[in-house]
Design brief:
Order of helices and strands: HEHEEHEHHEHEHHEHHEHEEE
Strand order of the largest sheet: 5-4-6-7-3-8-9-10-11
Radius of gyration: 22 Å
Distance between the termini: 71 Å
Shape: globular
Largest sheet: 9 strands, mixed
Helix content: 25-40%
Length: about 325
């Protein structure tokens, strides 16, 4: 009897199948400039770094993603890891209220699913990660037990024929660390070697947690000014990635190991809105307060093909608006 072999598959068919399998769920910000650059939003199951020199801009972008995640599912939760004590519950409430204009709901019920963890160093961040992992393990065990009895889980969902727990949105499925620079600095000032080792361990834990449980992790990273003591002491030669804008000069204060521990790396940079603003910024104009807008740029994308993409947006209150013209 002649052996039979499967018919060969076309490369185009394999590529289409691969694209379907690798397509990740995302959480958007409701700002078309940012979401378009990211092909919809920040990916679940991945670690994203948002770098920039203006802390408030990074925080606001992350808050919009935080609010969008909480509104995406009535059973999901999110954790904001606050390392600098600047978390604003009022700003989060305002953003949720703004988004509820398009999707009616009770803002207080949404806020009940938002968790805030105050930590002071990388060890505290590691403990916060362990608590999230432990909570998921308890939820998963409870789900498995109830599934065996063909009942409902703790959220009242029928689990007899439910999807795998990791593919649901129950529990914490978004983690924002605001910011990663502060706890690293506190450790590296004591011992640079120990600080680097703990940073690598922390990033590895976040990566495994994000992939095992399909969690979106956002690490907010301060890019210090050129004259910064932290930068000059620890980051000499660590300008691992280049911006497409020649006027943007930045370095990673954590060294190159941090950059290789994230899946997606974004840079937020400030630019003059127009020629008059640019002239005033250089000290030769008539504007006392030159207007600046923000450019979001994909520096590195290890899970897609978005490297080099950029768009501009401006901030009005707590709202992020795309710039149609520069």
């Amino acid at each position: 009897m002649a052996a039979s072999f499967p018919r060969p598959s076309l490369g185009s068919s394999l590529l289409a199948l691969s694209g379907t399998k690798d397509r990740k769920l995302v959480v958007g910000t409701s700002c078309s400039a940012i979401d378009d650059v990211l092909n919809g939003g920040f990916p679940y199951g991945s670690v994203t770094s948002i770098s920039g020199s203006v802390p408030s801009t990074k925080t606001l972008v992350a808050m919009h993603a935080f609010a969008s995640h909480l509104l995406s599912d009535s059973t999901t939760e999110a954790t904001w890891v606050d390392t600098n004590g600047n978390f604003s519950g009022g700003s989060l409430k305002d953003i949720i209220c703004f988004k509820l204009q398009q999707k009616p709901g009770d803002v207080n019920q949404v806020l009940e699913r938002a968790k805030v963890a105050r930590v002071f160093d990388l060890l505290g961040l590691g403990e916060a990660i362990d608590e999230i992992k432990l909570d998921h393990e308890k939820r998963q065990r409870a789900t498995d037990i109830v599934r065996d009895s063909d009942g409902e889980d703790e959220d009242g969902n029928d689990v007899a024929e439910s999807i795998p727990y990791a593919e649901t949105k129950r529990g914490v499925r978004l983690i924002v660390v605001d910011n990663i620079t502060q706890p690293y600095a506190s450790m590296v000032n004591k011992s640079q070697l120990e600080g680097q080792a703990i940073l690598v361990t922390t990033q590895r834990s976040l990566t495994l947690l994000s992939r095992d449980l399909n969690i979106a992790v956002l690490l907010l990273n301060d890019v210090p000014p050129a004259a910064s003591t932290l930068q000059s002491k620890y980051s000499s030669g660590h300008n691992t990635f280049q911006s497409v804008f020649g006027s943007v000069s930045w370095r990673l204060p954590h060294g190159p190991t941090y950059a290789y521990g994230v899946d997606l790396h974004l840079l937020l940079s400030r630019h003059p809105h127009g020629p008059e603003d640019a002239t005033s910024r250089l000290g030769g104009g008539f504007k006392d307060s030159p207007r600046e807008d923000t450019v979001v740029e994909v520096l590195v994308d290890r899970i897609g093909a978005r490297s080099g993409r950029w768009r501009a947006f401006t901030i009005v209150g707590t709202e992020l608006r795309e710039l149609t013209t520069l």
